[in-house]
Structure formats: structure tokens, C-alpha cells
Amino acid sequence: MTQTVKVTFFDPENSRELAHCIVARGTTVLEAALEAGVEIAATCGRRGRCRSCRVKVLAGEIAPPTLQDTIQLGPDGIRERFRLSCQMPAVADCGIAAMPETDELGHQILAGAGTFAPGALALDPGIEKRVIVAEAPQDENHQTSDIEQVLACLPADTSRDVPFDVYRKLPTVLREELGQMTVTAFHDAIIDVEAGNTSEKKFGIAFDIGTTTVVGSLHCLRTGEVLASMAAVNPQAVYGGDLMSRIAFAQFDAKKLQVLRGRILGMVNDFIEKMTKDAGVSPEHVYKIVVAGNTCMHHLFLGIDTSYVGLAPYAPVVRDPIAIPAGEIPLKRAPNARVCLLPILAGFVGADTIAGIIATRIHESEGIRLLVDIGTNGEVVLGSRERLLVCSAPAGPTFEGGQVRHGMRGAVGAIEKVDIDEDVTCQVIGDAPAIGICGSGLIDAVAKMRDAGVLDAAGRLWRPGVRPLPDRLQARIVKDGESRAFVLVHAAQGGRGEDVLLTQGDIRQLQLAKAAIYGGVMMLQKIMGVGDDQIEEVMLSGGFGNYVNIESAVRIGLLPPVPAAKVSYVGNTALLGAQLALMSEAERALSFEIARKIEHVALATRPEFQDIFVEACRLGAP
Amino acid sequence: MTQTVKVTFFDPENSRELAHCIVARGTTVLEAALEAGVEIAATCGRRGRCRSCRVKVLAGEIAPPTLQDTIQLGPDGIRERFRLSCQMPAVADCGIAAMPETDELGHQILAGAGTFAPGALALDPGIEKRVIVAEAPQDENHQTSDIEQVLACLPADTSRDVPFDVYRKLPTVLREELGQMTVTAFHDAIIDVEAGNTSEKKFGIAFDIGTTTVVGSLHCLRTGEVLASMAAVNPQAVYGGDLMSRIAFAQFDAKKLQVLRGRILGMVNDFIEKMTKDAGVSPEHVYKIVVAGNTCMHHLFLGIDTSYVGLAPYAPVVRDPIAIPAGEIPLKRAPNARVCLLPILAGFVGADTIAGIIATRIHESEGIRLLVDIGTNGEVVLGSRERLLVCSAPAGPTFEGGQVRHGMRGAVGAIEKVDIDEDVTCQVIGDAPAIGICGSGLIDAVAKMRDAGVLDAAGRLWRPGVRPLPDRLQARIVKDGESRAFVLVHAAQGGRGEDVLLTQGDIRQLQLAKAAIYGGVMMLQKIMGVGDDQIEEVMLSGGFGNYVNIESAVRIGLLPPVPAAKVSYVGNTALLGAQLALMSEAERALSFEIARKIEHVALATRPEFQDIFVEACRLGAP
After folding, report:
1. Which of A87, A518, B464, B517 is the most exposed place for a label (fewest CB within 10 A)?
2. Facing A305 at nearest CB: one of B168, B313, B602
């Protein structure tokens, strides 16, 4: 992968080039503009708290939107390829239209760069901090109590159902600062009281609890600003890499369920502790936590038996959205937080998928769009604002290197990119000698092998009798027991003194994995009656999607045959969806609505899926 | 105290005597009837579950009503002196009208014995156990979850806010008995699910958490029947016998507050464990717990800071009724119970007083009635259905033997009754040699000393110059330092080789204690404009009231000057009120209504109280 990128800036008025520069990959577009001598205002000091630095990405790879992008630019701005230049890293060569400063609330026609209507997200986390001056009871005859004196200063619809921790501290708080106190409420429910004025201190955390990875981000609830973020491997992984093995581990065994639960709660508590510490935030001031995760992660987080989630018909125990005090989970590190779990749709379509829909706004889309999360337990969403279909697409561990002879995760020594002309050239992570191949490398290798005629559409490796290959390629076809294999890296160049090769069996494995996903896509297209050309946009999400060569994915038929320009990587949509629900109760309410509206398709129950699956195994067009 | 009593039975039709018998004190009236050859039906087998054995107490001491009396006979029946003969112990000679069997729902005119209209309490504990057959999700395409399948079988208003423990066990429960399960709800909220039909098993517990004593009773929620009961000394007592010393112990010290809290929670958990074990009831089947206690006990039970309850203006932190899952307290021994705390009125007028009002129905009374709880922290309630006044009447420890030279609690060796004619005769608990005097003995002694001329109305002991006393009495007046004392038991007869005597100081102490209570009564009478003759009934409640000689209490002016027939002991009304709220949500709702309606009088803030108090110190009429 190249270490530098070229960023070219254009005048939005007339599309003429203003300047360009070469910067290190990952440099923000705002920094690149300074480097190139293009002036972009950054009123908030690069914190993503205003929209003065916004740009429009005219060409090249566009970064997935962040929460700041969404808050400042709104879903429409994001769809129109606007981004905050202070938040967007340049990861490949790109063309950027620098926007003139506008009045924060005004509209402006930007000739040559499309219309930009500010559609900022309304920040409404549901957490209200009110500063009141309440009088402690003064008169023995007056029939009152501490809490009644406080309630008298609050809106009439405030719930009288007050947590005990509030009662416990109230007598002191009420008398400490001559009655001046800050009352924090989640909707109509009081969640904390503090002496004095602490209204500025209002924080929340979004979590994406994935089977493989746990990601969290700490936000200021007044601005949405990210104050800290963390990611780590899900510590349940030692009891099984994938969902089914974890379900099996704890099946009909409440103690083992508690083991899994303890691991994830421990990590979430650690994340809260570390992020608040890093950001200099008091954990008592974390008032809202939103969690997105698949059904199994959701149930394990709550300590709910997952035994039957692993058995047909894979029914969840509960699907409704949940919002409960942290003490009930318990998340001891955020004692005052309300923990909100996004809703679930089915056993293998969880809150992460619902979050992904919110983040990508498929539910608002006029045209048909497709969201694909490639993973051990992938999901496919197809539709528009008219109708939404979803299915689970269990690809198995192939894309993580499982069940492939030289398969490995995307780590140093893994082939991640393959080029084939007269011979094979492999790009290896860390520029090290190859020791194996990762999922993105596998997809790329198979795509290039198809192009070179090493593989046919049915997935068969070249064999005598077929049109001959260039000599060097021909030489890479070797016997492998009763079958054959294709050598990607010869033993002499490899890191372990042996050939790194793809066997006929590995190819079959990839076909099954990709057919699980593309078969799901085809099934949903068939049910909805949508042809390939009707799909306006294909969005790849999840950790793996970031590394996939999009052309190759289309070439091997992992994705529908659409122009590569229609395909984009949209980032960790589960986390972004959780962040949106954190910052906006309207967005959280939307998650319930979507969960009610979307239709779940259970592929295994459809008689026609058998044929579709076989077709989906084909490695692209002949 | 005599060990046998005479029970005489009358024909209710013509008031002629049917038969009589002499039985051991404490024998139930039903057993006495069998002994006397009077036939009384006992359809339910003496469990207090029907009203076939009801009688009317025509003469003599009537036992305080039990929960069974209230359930079967209703408040009106109780006021009209009806009782269940299987529940009522004969504690003194009495006259009983044996009722003929009646149709359970019919009315009947009982000539000579008054009208008896069956007014049974409607049992409505708010706990519903529904047996349903729910189908586990069967179809992969059908968008559902375990809980949704269950909710579909329940009333539409059932809350979707389900406790986690239910989610945790639901998958197994739903699949264990082919979907047959029992769902327990408190109003619209699910609190438990069990496989199969367990609808018969529905229990609850009432607690009176007093400063001195903790009493609990376990009931069947279908019938009200008492299955077990327990009483013990409040284990907080080691940190202070009275409220104020406990408040002082934990004042501004959260750790010590936790110490007090831990003690009471430990005892309540022990009670639950032992009572359920004794009754052979599974603790999981205890669904409702009602707690009555004074403000301090209430706050300590919940772990709420009592620092300011002990400082003027003695405001509680919260007064609202509370109903929360046992896990939030936590009461681990009754994991599925909803714990309901009756409401509070003021710092020294707590849920025990509200419970006492419910139990005695003052709020429904046409005429003016007076409820007096004599104790270290006594309360006085005066009123009718028109208006209710309450005040706290802190008598201090005198009635428990405190601040009296030979004062002691009511234990073996305590003088409990005194007679004076030519000389003094003392009755001692356990017929042992006297070692001291308890509260009821003190009241009796002072009353008899007044009658004999040993004391004047101002509380002065006889002194030379006043009308002479019989010789033997005269001889009992001895010098005591600069003051005098009256010898109740001479050293030779005493248990410790010293005179048991009452000093002039002891008399003063009693005057202050009784003035605290009677001053409260006078103050409430004055505010309400009620003369002594307008008071229809005086009711003594609390543990101490049981031992007081009523004539003596009236004689010394602890109670207003009303005929002794108007005064009765009504038992532990805090517990009975809690039991009523346990068995009936309407009664629990009534407690909120009463708490809102009743007016609190803070004696110390009334300028006229000074004069009233001085007047209240007088030991009855000249």
C-alpha cells in the first residue's frame, strides 16, 4: 500500500483546480489544505463541533462518515459526499471541493458542487441537567420532605419514582450549597442530584459489542465530540471464536453463561474506566450508554440464556429495546448511566444490523440500496424507504482465514493483494515474506486467477485440455494429493520455507463462503423483484469490508455485478448507529420503528434458496 | 394475674344464658364453647378462613382484631364486637353471643345481639398468577421472541418492561412443560414465570419494623391465613435503644448508617427464611412484602441518610409510598417479591401510624375517636371521617423503665400491678420477689397512690400537715436524700435485699412522660374543638398498651377523663395495617389517601403547648 497520497483541491464555483499536494496517508484533508495553501476555516479548532471546514469529495475514496459528520452535515450532506475536513483522513488520492464559509443556518447554491442544504442532526440525547435552588424543609408543621422540595422546582411531569441512590445522597446535596443543585434526568426520570451547578458535565458512551471486537467511544452529550475511544478483542474469544461455538460453550449451563457474561461486563467496565480517565471525565457524569451488538452478544451482555438462540428456529428471548439503570446490569463504573440496548430483529439479525440501517439511512432512501456486512455471521439488508428486507448470511470463518490451508488473519506476513499478468505478484502486510493469505487477499487472488484463466467460473483450477496459460503461471499449478493447487509464493520467497498456495479445496471453501452472502443478496433481490441495475448503491460495512478490494469482490460474485463506483465502504455502522442513538433520542426511537418495519427472511426455510445458493457459488461472469 | 377465666355463652335471640365454663386463660372462645357444650360451627377447621364460627362479645375484654377477623367480618363487624371464635383467646371473663349459622352472603337480623351485616374485606393483593400455554417460536421467518410469545397470551395491558431474571429463565420455562407455564404479575408488571401450573402458591409477608421490636407474619395471599409469624428485638438496639440515639450514632457517617441498615436487612432476611421454612413455603413464591415502620426505621431500611430526620424541623427525605423489586433493597431471601413501604407523614409520624389508622378505621368513623400509641416515640391520632389530626408524642424511656430508680422492662421480678387499701399489695411478673417496677406497674402504682391520698394532683408525695394516712402507708413514706420516696416492697420481701421504692423524682419523670402524650391529646382536642365527652372511643395500640391498666391510665390523666368502657386495647395496629395492605391493594391505596389527608401538628412549634403541657402534668382530677 502506498504511504503517500495526492490531494487535489478544486474551486466549488467553477471546478477549476486550486492547488494540490502530496501528504502522508492518513493526513486529514484539512491539514492537506494547509499544506497546499488552500484556506479552509476551522472555527471550532478541529474538534468536529462546527461545519466551517466542510468539503465535498469530488473524486477518489471517501472516508466513512463519523458521528461528527452526521451531526454537523446531516444524512443528506453525507449522501452528497460532504465531509468535515478536520475529521476525514486522506487514505487514497482524492479530489476535494473546498466550500466557502456560509452562515451556519443559511442555504447556499454551490455551482458545480451540487446543492448543500445544511441538515444537521438535532442533538437530543434525552439527558437534561437542570440547575435549581430548592429549599430544605424549614417548618415542622409543613408536611413535606426533601424530595418534595426538589420536585416542586422541576417540571410537573417529573416522575416521583426516584432511584434510591438519589434519596441516599439527597439530604446532604440539598443542604450543601444553600439549596443550589443540579438535577439530571433521563426524560421524566431523575437519575442523579449534585450540589452546585454541574450542568456542563454531561457525557455518554456508545458501544459496538461485536463477536470479534469491542469498540467504545466517549462523547460530550452537549456537542457530540468524541473525547476518547477504545477497541479491543472480545475477551469471550478464548471460549470460541465465533458465535456458535460460544453458544455451544454455554448451552444449558448457567455457570458457563456467567463466565461469558463476566468477561464482557469486565471489559465494558474497563473501557468506561479507561476512557473517562483518559478524557478527564468523572464516571458519575456518564449518563447514557448505548449498546449495539448481535443477538448473542446482546443476550450475553444481559445474562440471558442463549441456548435456544443456537437452535432452530434461532429465536431471541427478547427483541424489544431496553433502557435500564446501569446498576441493574451491573455496570459499576458508570453508576448513574441509563443503559440503552438497541432492539433485535431475529436470532441472527441483531441490534448491530438495526444500528447499521440507522447509520446508512437505507430506510429513508428513495432508490434501492444494499448493505452488506461480510463476516462469520454476516447480514444483508436490501431496500428503500418503501420496504426493507434483511437476512443473515453466515459466511463462516473463511474470510478470517479459517478452513483455508494457508489462511490467516490480516497480520504481518499475510498476502493482502495479488496481481497476475505473466506471473504472480503478491503484496504482503508489513512487506514481510509471505507466510499465508488473509480474507481480502483470498478474494483478490481468486478474482485475478479468474481474469488470468487460472480458474473457471465453476471454480475449477486450470487442467490440461483448457486454453494454455503463460509458462510461469502454468508452472504454479501443482499436484496436491489427488487434487491440484496454485502456488502464490514459492518456498524460496516465503517466510516459512514452503510454498504458499491455494488448493482446489480452498477455492471451494471461498465459493461456499461468498455464496452464503451473495446467495442472501440474490434471495432478497428475488423477493423484492429488484434487478442488479436497480441497485443504486452497495455499501460494505464491518471491520472486514475496509480491506476488501471492491473490484475483486464484484469480479468473483461476492457482490452483485454493479459498477465499482456504486460500491463503497461505509465503516463501522454498528458503532455509528449506536453513536447516533446516543446523541439523539429521535434516532433511538427510529431503531424501534425500523425493527418493527423490516422483514426478516430466513434463507434456510426457502425451498428456492437451494438453487440460488448453487448459482451464487459461481465465480462471476464467464 | 388469674390463670383461669369464665366464659359465658348467651342465646343471641333472647339474650338468655346458654351455658358457661371455666377455662385456662388464652383458650380460644371456640374451645371454650366446646367445653361448655355450646355448638359453634367451624367449617374451615379453625384456620380463620370462613366466618361460620363468629361470635359477638357482649361483655368483658375483647381481643384486638386479627387480620382473619378483618377479612371475614369486615371493619363494621369488628366495630360491632364480632370476632372469629377460633381466633379469639379468652384473656378475661367474658360474655359471648353464639351466632347461628347463616348463609355466607345473606343478611340476618339477630335480635338482642345487634345487626350483623357481613362486610368481608375483598381480598385483592394485586398479585395475579395466570396459567397459560405459550408456544415457543416455531418458524424461522416469523419475527418473534420468547417473551413476545408469552405476552401474546396475557392481557394487552401487560407491561413489556420485564425483569431480567424473567428473561434469564424464560427460554427453559417456555420449553419445559410443552409451553404450560404460570406467569405471576403485580398489577400489569410481570414478576416471575414458572413451568407448569403453580397458581396455588401465592404468599406474602407483612412486617412491622419497630424501634424496639420487629414482627413479621407470612400469609397465604389467596385466603389471608397466617402460615407463620415471628417477633424479635430490633438488632439495631445495640447501637441505641431509642430512635434519637440511633440517629446520632449514624449522623453524618455513611458507614455507620450501613451498619444499622445491615442489621435490619439481616433480620428481615432471616425472618423470611425462617417463616417460609416453618410454613413449608418456597421463598420464590413470596410475591409481596409490606413494611410499616416509623420514619427512621423506614429510612434505615432503605439506606437513606437519617441525619436530618434527627434535626429540627425533622423532615423525612421521602414520604411517598414505595413499591420496588426485592432485589433493589436487597432482600435476597424473597427474590421475586415486590416490597411495598407504606407512606410517611413527617419525621416522627411514620408508616406505622398510617397503618394504625387503616387498622382502626378512624378515617371512616362517624364519631370522634382517639388512637394513642404509648411509647418512647408515641403518636396520637384524633378525628373522624371529617378530619384527622396527628402529632408525635415523645414520652421518652420512662414507660420502658428508663430514668426511674427501680424502673425495669416488663420481665420476671417487675411489679406490674399495685393495690392499696390499708397497705400496699404488689403483683409481680412470674410471682417472683420484686426487683423493680415496669411501666404498667408504674402507672398502676401512681393511680392507686393518688386514690389513697399518698400523692396529690400536682404529684407531690404526702408530707406532714396533710390529712393523715393509714399507719402502714404512712410508714412507707421515707426520706430519700433531700426528698422523699414511697416504699412499694420492703427490703425483706424484695428480690435484692433492698426496698423497691418510687422516689419523688420518679413521680416527676412519670408526669413528664404522660404529659408528653396527654398534652398531645389535649392539643389535638383544642385544635379540633373536641371536648372529652365528644370522644366516642379511645384506642390504645402498640406493645405497651397491652399491659396498661386502663382505669389507672385514665386516673392519672395519661388518657382523657372518659369512662373506662370507652377505652380499649386494639393490638399491634402497625402490623395489622401492614397485613391489610398486604391482602388488599385498595387498603394500600387508602394509606396514600390518608397520608395526604391527615394534618400534622408539630407540638413544639405551638406557643400554647407550653401551658397545655403544664396542665397535662397533673395527675388526674383532685
Report:
1. B464
2. B168
- Pull the grid cell for residue A240: 470460541
Closest CB from A148, A319, A600 relative to B148? A319
- Residue B48 phi/psi, 5-degree rounding, is 70, 25
What's the CA gap between B117 and B312, in Å, rounded? 48
Q: State whether A171 and B138 contact (CB < 8 Å).
A: no
Q: Give dist(CA B159, CA B153) in Å, integer.
A: 13
Instruction: Say what the pTM is.
Output: 0.88
A171 at interface of B, judged by CB pairs closer than 8 A:
yes
Cell numbers that stand for A396 in this block = 463462516
Of the residues B146, B165, B594, the best mutation for testing chain A's interface (the one with the most A CB atoms within 10 Å of its CB) is B146
- Burial label, A53 (beta-carbon count in 10 A; 0-12, 13-18, 19+): buried
Does A331 score more than 90 pLDDT? yes
Question: Is the CB of residue B607 less than 8 Å away from at least one CB of chain A?
Answer: no
- Name chain A contacts of B168, Cβ cutoff 8 Å: 302-305
Predicted confidence (pLDDT) at residue B582 exceeds the cutoff of 90? yes
Task: Quick: pLDDT tens for A257-302.
Answer: 999 999 999 999 999 999 999 999 999 999 999 999 999 999 999 9
Q: How far is CA B312 from CA A137, A141, B604, in A?
A: 9, 11, 10
pLDDT for residue A84: 93
Contact at 8 Å (CB) between B296 and B235?
Answer: no
| Non-local CB neighbours of B431 within 8 Å, separated by 6+ positions | none
B308 touches chain A (CB under 8 A): yes
Beta-sheet strand order (sheet of A213-220): A226-233, A213-220, A203-209, A286-293, A338-341, A322-325
E strands within B25-116? Answer: 54-60, 82-84, 94-98, 108-110, 114-116
Lowest mean pLDDT across A39-53, A378-392, B477-491, B585-599: A39-53
Judge residue B74's burial from the number of C-beta atoms within 10 Å of its C-beta, 0-12 exposed, 13-18 middle, 19 or more buried: buried
CB contact under 8 A, B305 and A147: no
Q: Which of B145, B158, B251, B307 to mutate to test the interface with A (most CBs of A within 10 A)?
A: B145
B positions 106-165 inside 8 Å of A (CB): 136-148, 160, 162, 164
C-alpha to C-alpha distance for A103 and A317, rounded to whole angstroms:
50
Neighbours of A231 (CB within 10 A): 15
DSSP state of A346: B
Q: B389 near B383, Cβ under 8 Å? A: yes
Pairing of strands A213-220, A203-209: antiparallel
In A261-403, which ranges are E strands?
Answer: 286-293, 322-325, 338-341, 368-373, 378-383, 388-393
pLDDT at B376: 79
DSSP, res A281 = -
**Predicted local confidence at residue B530, as pLDDT:** 97
- Which DSSP symbol is given to A153? T
Is B103 a residue whose pLDDT tops 50?
Answer: no
User: Exposure string (b/e) for B502-530, b if CB count within 10 Å is 16 or more?
Assistant: bbbebbebbbbbbbbbbbbbbbbbebbeb
Q: What average pLDDT does this structure show over B500-515?
A: 95
B244 backbone dihedrals φ, ψ, rounded to 5°: -65, -35
Could A315 and B172 be called an inter-chain contact, meaning their C-beta atoms sit closer than 8 Å? no
CA distances (Å), origin B54, targets B41, B68, B86, B107, B577? 9, 11, 8, 14, 22
Average pLDDT, chain B: 91
pLDDT at A101: 62
Give residue-wise pLDDT tens across range B265-320: 999 999 999 999 999 999 999 999 999 999 999 999 999 999 999 998 999 999 99
Q: Which of B143, B147, B600 sits opposite A318 (nearest CB)?
A: B147
As to burial, measured by CB atoms within 10 angstroms (0-12 exposed, 13-18 middle, 19+ buried), residue A371 is buried
Q: Which of A139, A140, A602 shows the shortest C-beta gap to B141?
A: A602
